[in-house]
């Protein structure tokens, strides 16, 4: 019981640290992992699924092994809760997500569309050319919704299930998906394993996030989640985006462009198109969901 309690206390403390400090400004462990993953990619890349599977397996396995070492050492030294808090703070991205959303809100409130289009890449890979204020607002709201699961709730779920190894392995999976999981000519085959692994790792957390959005956002979120969540091409992002659409009373989905490739996604929700003011509402909802997740972990564990 004491080790379980220490894990829960560490996860909750990590959420608090992230809320006050955001991401480390220098020597960010996730950025370091990304540089290592790029170096490995240069050595093993090949236009095949099996090479991509080896690439993802080695890197995720290495992250898990590092987590086991830290977990065991922290238990021996009696600092398991503090170590869990530090790792949780390092892998969470909820506060930085909210800050990026607010930066976009301020740019759009000033009607600085050029700067907003340039800044959008900090949140998603969508092609910003040709997007007006409403198009940019929708992109930001959708990104905040999806990343509430990826950056906040999912790490906490895996930390609650598997401790420090779970935290590090999940962040490795999610980082690799962001790096090579795109359906581009280079990564169509090589990134397949990373993308599928990310789908599996986020299946439960996305549904937990949707439930927490309903808890924080009301019954309309539940109605839209049940009706529209399964229509999205992603098995996970659609659940969260649909719940956000219902909670905010907006309509998400539609035509998106990614590097010359156009996707037409089903619309979710019955409300109006998102406006600039909805970005701030989405950021507040995202923060509420993150703290709700921490509260649930604290109570249940």
TrEMBL record:
InterPro entries attached to this UniProt entry: Cobalamin_biosynth_CobD/CbiB (IPR004485)
Pathway entry: Cofactor biosynthesis; adenosylcobalamin biosynthesis
Main location class: membrane
Topology class, membrane: Multi-pass membrane protein
Family: Belongs to the CobD/CbiB family.
Function: Converts cobyric acid to cobinamide by the addition of aminopropanol on the F carboxylic group.
NCBIfam families for this protein: cobal_cbiB, PRK01209.1-4
Listed PANTHER family: COBALAMIN BIOSYNTHESIS PROTEIN CBIB (PTHR34308:SF1)
Protein name in UniProt: Cobalamin biosynthesis protein CobD
Organism whose genome encodes this protein: Actinomadura chokoriensis
């Amino acid at each position: 019981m004491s080790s379980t309690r220490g894990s829960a206390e560490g996860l909750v403390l990590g959420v608090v640290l992230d809320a006050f400090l955001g991401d480390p400004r220098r020597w960010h462990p996730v950025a370091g992992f990304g540089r290592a993953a790029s170096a490995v990619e240069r050595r093993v890349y090949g236009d095949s699924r099996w090479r991509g599977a080896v690439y993802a397996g080695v890197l995720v396995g290495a992250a898990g092994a590092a987590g086991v070492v830290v977990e065991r050492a922290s238990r021996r030294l009696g600092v398991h809760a503090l170590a869990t808090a530090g790792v949780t703070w390092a892998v969470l991205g909820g506060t930085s997500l909210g800050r990026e959303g607010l930066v976009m809100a301020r740019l759009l409130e000033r009607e600085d569309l050029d700067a907003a289009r340039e800044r959008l890449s900090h949140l998603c890979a969508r092609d910003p050319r040709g997007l007006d204020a409403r198009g940019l607002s929708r992109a930001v709201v959708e990104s905040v919704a999806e990343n509430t699961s990826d950056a906040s709730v999912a790490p906490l779920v895996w930390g609650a299930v598997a401790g420090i190894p779970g935290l590090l392995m999940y962040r490795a999976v999610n980082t690799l998906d962001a790096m090579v999981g795109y359906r581009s000519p280079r990564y169509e085959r090589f990134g397949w394993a990373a993308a599928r692994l990310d789908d599996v790792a986020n299946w439960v957390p996305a549904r937990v996030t949707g439930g927490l959005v309903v808890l924080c956002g009301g019954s309309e979120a539940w109605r839209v989640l049940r009706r529209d969540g399964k229509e999205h091409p992603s098995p996970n992002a659609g659940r969260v985006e649909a719940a956000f659409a219902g909670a905010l009373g907006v309509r998400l989905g539609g035509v998106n462009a990614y590097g010359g490739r156009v996707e037409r996604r089903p619309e979710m929700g019955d409300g109006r198109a998102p406006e600039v003011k909805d970005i701030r509402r989405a950021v507040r909802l995202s923060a509420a969901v993150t703290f709700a997740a921490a509260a649930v972990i604290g109570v249940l564990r």
